[in-house]
Amino acid sequence: MDSTGREIQRVDDVNLPGGALDEGSLIFGVGQDGKYFVLVRELTKASGPDFAYRVTVQSVAPKFEVVAEASAFTIPQNGYQSLPITVTRSEYTGPIELSLVGAPAGFKLEPAVIPESENGILCKLSATGEVPLGLYQLELSGTGRAGETVITSPVVTHPLVDRQLVNVDLIKHALRDNQRWLPPSVTDKLAVQITPPTPFNVELASNNVTLPRYQQANVLLQISRSAGFEGEISFLATGTQQLGPESQGRRQVFARFPKATSDMAAVTGTVHSRSQANEGTERVDIRVMARQGTRSIQLERSVMLAIKPAFEIEVEPAKLTLAPGGVATVKFVAMRLPSFAGEVTITPTTPLGVAIPESIVIPADKSSVEIEVKVEATLKPGNQRIRFVATAPVNGFQEEPRAKDLEIEIKEPAPAAATK
């Protein structure tokens, strides 16, 4: 509120999955010097000595919060487990250096830098054979630099100490309300158990997989075994958004992984897109499971899955300047993913006073075509926008990626300079 009592900005509590409420917060830009007031009250206007509030006010400064997506690990000697890390940035876009704080010799985190403007990274937390067997508490820290200012923030976790069932769909479990205020002794440490070396190892051929909508993509896992170990190795993929069990039809993405027998040096799993998969990127965690005698072994590997259309188009150039009666050539480029090699049909909106084909086809054996764009001689100066919608059948479904625009500025040519 300003000095006259006029309301400038309002915020309410935020509903979290499971019904919990998070405290409201806002960023207020001061337009001019003066007195401002913060009013906190119940929506029902109830009041009394039992209604207590804490309001924190601070100037906006570059900061970030780094979160480890797992809080407990079992790491074999001479092995590693995947450690996904996410970042929430505020007024800071620079790189963030990650470091182990006071960790015993033999522990290593790599990569150790979150690149500029990135909001997540897949790390490996590893232990050499010199790390003794047993339990450890590890702390991680993130450091950034904004000019001459050094920004430091502990890497926190959100351990699901007491989970509640929300639904069987996309958000299966959630934190109870009281877990959002866990003490730092719980949230700023990772629990690690070091176990004997495993008789096998599994590596992803790539940490990034692209899944075309309506199609499938391969995930290659390379396997190495110690002499004498012939046990069967199985795999279970879980997603953080759309990927889920194949039996759940509501899940739009699912994965299939065959079991690895002793004669297999690699396994190729597949990730499948159903008809309503949304474009986006999510992390997929792959649990690798085997037994050695009475010992149960689990390794965690993570991959970033990008779900995209099987093709997109580009309009070159995206902007034109033409005089009335002018003509220009426009190129349409089909950017196909390797799994798609079909024909692409492009339909433009009907422009006023601009002549273009009613339909444009990029044949399956070509990556681009060119057309002629002609402005009528009687068209007055101004701006025109033509939208191009591309479609193609992909695995029996009609794919339609985001439309692309062509901006045309109709402009009278400058008068010729007078000659003496």
Q: How would you characterize the overall build of this protein?
A:
The chain has 420 residues and is mainly beta. 1% of the residues lie in helices and 49% in strands. The protein contains 1 helix and 32 strands. It has one helix at 184-187, and strands at residues 14-15, 21-22, 63-68, 72-76, 79-90, 96-101, 107-110, 113-114, 120-127, 134-146, 149-157, 163-165, 173-175, 190-195, 200-204, 208-212, 216-225, 234-239, 253-256, 266-273, 280-292, 295-308, 311-316, 319-322, 327-336, 344-348, 354-355, 360-362, 368-375, 382-394, 397-399, 404-410. The strands form 7 sheets. Strands 3, 4, 5, 6, 7, 8, 9, 10, 11 and 14 form a 10-stranded mixed sheet that branches. The chain is globular, with a radius of gyration of 29 Å. 20% of the residues are buried.
Euclidean distance between termini CA atoms: 68 Å
Percent of residues in β-strands: over 45%
Q: How many E strands?
A: 32
Computed over alpha carbons, the radius of gyration is: 29 Å
What is the overall shape?
A: globular
Main beta-sheet strand count, sense and barrel state: 10 strands, mixed
Low-pLDDT segments, ≥5 res? none
Describe the structure concisely for a colleague:
The chain has 420 residues and is mainly β.
List keywords for this structure.
6-stranded mixed beta sheet, mainly beta, globular, 10-stranded mixed beta sheet, 49% strand
Compile the SSE list and pairings.
Blueprint (H helix, E strand, L loop, with lengths): L13 E2 L5 E2 L40 E6 L3 E5 L2 E12 L5 E6 L5 E4 L2 E2 L5 E8 L6 E13 L2 E9 L5 E3 L7 E3 L8 H4 L2 E6 L4 E5 L3 E5 L3 E10 L8 E6 L13 E4 L9 E8 L6 E13 L2 E14 L2 E6 L2 E4 L4 E10 L7 E5 L5 E2 L4 E3 L5 E8 L6 E13 L2 E3 L4 E7 L10
Parallel strand pairs: 3-11, 4-14, 16-22, 24-32
Antiparallel strand pairs: 1-2, 3-5, 5-9, 6-8, 6-10, 7-9, 10-11, 10-14, 12-13, 15-17, 17-20, 18-21, 19-20, 21-22, 23-25, 25-29, 26-28, 26-30, 27-29, 30-31, 30-32
